[in-house]
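request received
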Amino acid sequence: MAHMNMVQALNSAMDIMLDRDPRVVVFGEDVGYFGGVFRVTDGLQRKYGEHRVLDTPIAEGGIVAAAIGMGVNGLKPVAEIQFADYIYPAFDQVVSELARLRYRTAGEFSAPVTIRTPCGGGIRGGQTHSQSPEGIFTHVCGIKVVMPCTPYDAKGLLISSIEGDDPVVFFEPKRIYNGPFDGDPHKPAVPWSAHPGGAVPEGYYTVPIGRAQIVRPGSDVTVLAYGTMVHVAEAAVRVAGVDAEIVDVRTLAPLDTDTICSSVNKTGRCVVVHEATRFSGYGAELVATVQEECFWHLEAPIQRVTGWDTPYPHAFEWEYFPGPARIAAALKSVMEAA
Amino acid sequence: MTPRSRLHIPYPPARPGDKPDFSYVQISPPGAVPRPEAKVPVRDIESLAGQMVRVLGDDSKAVGPWNPHLDPQELQVGLRHMLMTRLFDDRMQRMQRQGRMSFYMKSTGEEAVAVAAGMALLPGDMLFPSYRVQGLQVVRGRSLVDLMCQCLSNTHDMCKGRQMPVMYHWAAGNIFSISGNLATQFPQAVGWAMAAAIKGEDRVAATWIGEGSSAEADFHHAMTFAQVYRAPVILNVVNNQWAISTFQGFAGGEVQTFARRGPGYGMPGIRVDGNDFLAVYAVTQWAAERARQSGGPTLIEHVTYRAAAHSTSDDPSRYRPKEEWKAWPLGDPVDRLKQHLIALGEWSEERHTALEKELEAHVTACWKEAASYGTLTEGPQLDPATMFEDVYKEMPQHLVRERQQLLDLLQRQPAPGSQEQRELDQQTRSMAKEG
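response:
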């Protein structure tokens, strides 16, 4: 098995799908000749030509709208929005068009579009290169929302997204493109080659959409996390010294309620972690689901650990980031309550 | 054979390893383009969008009807501003490379676009800049220390550490906040100009975007609103040939100039040599005069070249020839104005070297002062608790709570009598009432 970082794994997923399926096209700003500002599409235009891997004008609304048109006309577009923070000019095309096309035409028209976009902070990107807007998209009926936390899952989930017939917004946590990150910016970077999730088959495989994954079994408390925060939660669990079960939610919509609720029913406690802001964030959906399904098994109020309800401040990246200390405090607090 | 369509994929004339080729840039001779009266109908001046207004010739003399006939003293001020902008950019890039700040974006080669336009406008005119027209700040007299402190996110940062470097704002200097999201300022400037007209003020708005981001819908919103209401606004497209790795053909510049979009919407479009200080000054002055006389908006395309990388995160050697700038047919704006002043007998190599030295020393002194207020890595740091301020005018309770959580985490108590303490007290009181 090869070792890949997340950039290489995503590249491999697109490479395989471009090769297997002539309907697949890849495009976005700086995606073609240059290979993307994060190098995720590096080499694909050289290999598949500039009619299948295209540079586009700087117009996110145009990119998503064109993807819809291509999808309606039989292609399988994989569109890159350079930063999730830049996705908003495409919002109308995603919410009013892409998400509802199948529904409003009673299934006659649909557009199997995959929108890839890097999200999350930790790269000194300030408020316009750090956002985690997944909760805005999980609130829209008709699109699937995915966020992997390892190269293995990134590749398998991206292939599933491209193969599927429904539109997917595929968030890539850019802080972990090159290695897992445990929330401590002062530690030396760890490469993916040192992590089991960095072992990635060269060839085709899929990771199903709609399935969460237990990344650390435990009995005391369930931690629900996704993306970068899975790794931060693992570090926090070590700090807190509790036997936590960490569930990587992985596909935010549709949600794998079964895996989540069996875990919470077993542990009786739950902490929800995400980097996005708290108020009306995706964590509220997780908390509500757990409350509805697991109420009689709960031994403590569910806690949320999230980014503060402010824009992502450039200077205070690490005071803003919901790091291991905050997660550990929440873990201790749910363990004490009873 | 059955006919079938095939996409046209724009391709730049040169990629790494190729010989630079700017034969696609249509250039009019200096002085060749007529200068109309400011209020002529658009249909009579459509040709301005296809030609190129130029004043400075290869002989460094100013020629033709667009010559703004500026005093030598004013030209010297322009040269000074451009040089200051360039030296400031160079220093900030070096400081980023040394890890003193997170990021930087230079405007090298494009200084005239900002400086000449800024000088042709009045101090009360409102500027809505992109992230590569820092010369506007220099023209308006913003201290370099302020700009540096913003880039450093330090204790004197006007943004209180909330924005990435170069995202300045200056209300007192009539310069709007720079956004990291592209083109958003273009239609906002139109709205500002509409307000000026509604309020009966004699003020003009001016705004800048790159040719790359003219593909965004916001460009078209600006064009439509500006023309429908004949808003007093100057819409500048800085065509510096490159949007990160994509050349201007990807924004629609292959078969049509960007200026021609003006007449397409019913407003004048002027294409200007963006490296010609005098020409940029003259067309800006013309557009401002037209706007002040209720003649409505003008679209100006500044033809220039992005000599530097897109940003400190970018490596242009991956997508364009290394020496491309040297082949750029419109030269270097700083050098061209310098040669013009020398040709006028109002400047010399000695004076230029002395000016460089003086400005270099000024930049050094400013950097020393700015760094004393803190850098990314050392010195005084901003208070993280301030990140909760200005989300709303009054801090809602959930933010007061979150701020306290952060303070607890940092094991710090609000200072007695501080704003933090007052808000916390207020919350405690209201919670007691509720209880």
